[in-house]
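Tip: read the tokens left to right.
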């Protein structure tokens, strides 16, 4: 069974190979959502970008992003600003299948202004 390590929560979960990351994380008590998104989310349909995770290690052990995920990460401001300025890939947990061991950061921070504040 592959192991997914949530680095910012210091948790490890064992998941069946090919399992959905969001479903397995929520089943094991991992907090994927922050703020109002704990209750106001799309329930795994891939539309709200609130279950985003930053892949720290093991990107090759996750399914490839599909068209739906790529589209929503581009047009949704939360997905777009989560990826902005990050060299690590950001994925939607609800659209990600686990094929092997990996490390992810749940609830990655948003980069609203880049490395330097452009309005100063």
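Filled-in amino acids:
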């Amino acid at each position: 069974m592959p192991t997914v390590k949530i680095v910012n929560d210091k948790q490890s979960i064992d998941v069946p190979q090919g399992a959905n990351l969001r479903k397995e994380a929520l089943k094991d008590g991992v907090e994927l959502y922050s703020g109002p998104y704990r209750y106001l989310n799309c329930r795994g349909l891939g539309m709200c970008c609130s279950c985003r995770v930053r892949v720290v290690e093991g990107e090759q052990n996750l399914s490839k992003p599909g068209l739906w995920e790529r589209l929503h990460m581009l047009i949704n401001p939360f997905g777009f600003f989560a990826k902005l300025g990050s060299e690590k890939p950001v994925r939607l947990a609800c659209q990600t299948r686990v094929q092997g061991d990996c490390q992810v950061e749940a609830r990655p921070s948003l980069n609203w202004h880049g490395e330097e504040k452009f309005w100063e």
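The first strand starts at residue 3 and ends at 6. The chain has one domain: 3-106.
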